[in-house]
């Protein structure tokens, strides 16, 4: 869907901050499914957490991302996603070896241009929801860097610059598309 724009990339690379910038400019945004799964699981002492059961976590994130995608159909204008279906499917595939769902290729599509935040060690920080280290985040980034083109998306790697400049890069690229 042309108006659904994916922002993905390295964990700790500034995606959430960038989405907050875009929201501040009046765009609709969808928060990262994985962080919401972690918050829900921690609140109920659940085990579908990436550091306990990555497969269960990824399945929950995939279900949540699919719901986000469907709900976004009812929103007007451009909708920016902080991770989504592809990210969750890649995590599930990494955890279990399962193939990506076929519907990723043909039914649940985002804008053809996907924006990735690269590894940025100077801003990377762990927190209660992000317990993995930078090398694990980089490995995840490399899987995403391979997965999006395999699903016929074009990647723009965002520069390591200010949040406002990153937002301008995205908006300019979308205007040119």
From TrEMBL:
> What is the source species?
Aureimonas endophytica
Tell me the first and last residues of the signal peptide: none
Recorded coiled-coil stretches = none
Highest taxon, organism lineage: Bacteria
Q: This chain belongs to which protein, by name?
A: ATPase
NadR/Ttd14 AAA domain residues: 5-166
Which Pfam family would be a valid example here? AAA_28
């Amino acid at each position: 869907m042309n108006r659904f724009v994916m922002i993905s990339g390295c964990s700790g690379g500034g995606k959430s901050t960038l989405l907050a910038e875009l929201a501040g400019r009046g765009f609709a945004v969808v928060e990262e499914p994985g962080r919401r799964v972690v918050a829900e699981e921690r609140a109920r002492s659940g085990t579908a957490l990436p550091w306990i059961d990555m497969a269960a976590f990824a399945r929950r994130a995939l279900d949540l991302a699919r719901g986000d995608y469907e709900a976004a159909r009812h929103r007007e204008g451009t909708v920016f996603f902080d991770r989504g279906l592809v990210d969750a499917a890649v995590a599930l595939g990494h955890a279990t070896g399962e193939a990506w769902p076929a519907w990723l290729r043909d039914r649940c599509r985002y804008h053809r241009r996907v924006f990735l935040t690269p590894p940025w060690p100077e801003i990377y920080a762990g927190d209660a929801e992000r317990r993995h280290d930078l090398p694990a985040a980089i490995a995840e980034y490399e899987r995403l860097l391979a997965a999006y083109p395999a699903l016929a998306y074009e990647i723009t790697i965002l520069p390591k610059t200010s949040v406002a400049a990153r937002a301008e890069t995205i908006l300019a690229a979308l205007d040119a598309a």
